[in-house]
Design a protein that fits this description.
50% helix; alpha/beta; five-stranded parallel sheet; TIM Barrel; three-stranded parallel sheet; lyase
């Protein structure tokens, strides 16, 4: 029996499914403090300054509410879940996570975050599941911390807040980390962060570098790099979860398959190699999508049709997009009771081992 069966938001006993939100963010206060120091004292990248400058220094109440909620793993978070009707959260270290930190502090922060999340799960097993963070740049240490997080702390996946100082997970140096996730049978959650300096310029000057479009462009690119590099052919049991309904890629899969096939046949790029299956097929064998930030029936139904209904699950994107009313909208999706139960509950239970 899952811990999920022992509690949830008010009224959970009378519902035929539990609502699991699968992309919900946490930030230790120590990380928030370090980000603020970096913003004030270092020559940080444009994206970091744009994103963290907004959340950490703005006087607007919206970013202030987000930061206050990020560091809470107790009564306030659970009260927000209850108010929205969310029974269970999959909690992970928020972007940009460890990826922008010095390697030594990245390791310390990952350990701290993993211990805090594991303690919260222990205190509230019916309400929380946690993902592990690692400091990616020191690969041996990252492997050891992922193993500790899963086997000792009971965490159920790895959070990867996209690029690591401009490098991507298709780089062979990160393969031992991904192989370890596959060997431990836990998924990797690929979460957006801001574009690196060598790509962000046109987005930033138009005010499009963040969630409005830049995040999708950055993380969609990352995901495509992972697929076209042959990573899933080399690690066929690697499981990846991607939010925001796949960062727009499901809409393009037909064109991507067509153009990738032509490029392979022509030998146009050294990096473009033949894969064991079309690009689109990896969305049906290795990749799952969540609805974080995308509570829109046409997009959800399209994604379910393209990649399979068993590949799409619910997420809210708390606290960045905390909109309690969206839960009612998702309950009203034109799906059967069994389909809603899979969408909200059983797919997430299977993927994260809840």
């Amino acid at each position: 029996m899952s811990a999920l069966d022992h509690g949830g938001a008010p009224g959970w006993e009378d519902r035929p499914y539990r609502r699991i939100a699968t992309e919900e963010a946490y930030a230790p206060q120590e990380m928030i403090d370090e980000y603020l120091r970096m913003f004030r004292e270092e020559d940080v990248e444009i994206g970091f300054r744009s994103l963290m400058g907004y959340f950490l220094t703005s006087e607007h109440p919206q970013p202030q509410r987000v930061v206050q909620r990020l560091a809470d793993l107790g009564e306030r978070r659970i009260a927000d879940m209850d108010a929205a009707g969310i029974d269970h959260q999959i909690i992970a270290l928020t972007a940009p996570g460890t990826q922008v930190l010095d390697p030594g502090f990245a390791e310390e922060l990952a350990t701290l975050a993993n211990d805090r999340i594991a303690a919260a799960v222990s205190d509230h097993p019916a309400r929380y599941t946690g993902l592990a963070a690692v400091g990616f740049e020191r690969v041996d240490s990252a492997v050891a911390e992922l193993q500790r997080g899963v086997t000792e702390l009971g965490l159920r996946g790895l959070i990867a807040n996209s690029h690591i100082k401009g490098t991507y997970l298709d780089n062979p140096k990160y393969e031992p980390i991904l192989r370890t996730a596959a060997e431990l049978d836990v998924p990797v959650y690929l979460h957006p962060q801001t574009l690196p300096d060598n790509a962000i310029g046109p987005y930033y000057e138009a005010g499009l570098d963040g969630a409005v479009w830049g995040f999708a462009a950055e993380t969609g690119l990352h995901l495509l790099r992972m697929i076209t590099s042959g990573l899933f052919d080399r690690i066929p049991n690697l499981r990846l979860v991607v939010g925001h309904l796949g960062e727009g890629l499901p809409y393009f899969l037909h064109r991507i398959d067509h153009m990738h096939g032509k490029q392979v046949a022509a030998g146009r790029y050294e990096a473009t190699k033949a894969l064991r299956q079309p690009v689109s097929e990896y969305f049906r064998t290795n990749i799952w999508l969540t609805t974080s930030g995308m509570p829109w029936e046409p997009a959800i139904s399209f994604a379910r049709r393209v990649v399979g209904a068993d590949r799409v699950m619910y997420a809210m994107d708390y606290p960045y997009q905390y909109v309690p009313e969206e839960v009612g909208e998702m309950d009203a999706l034109p799906y059967s009771a069994d389909e809603l139960r899979a969408f909200y509950q059983t797919i997430a239970q299977d993927v994260f081992g809840i």
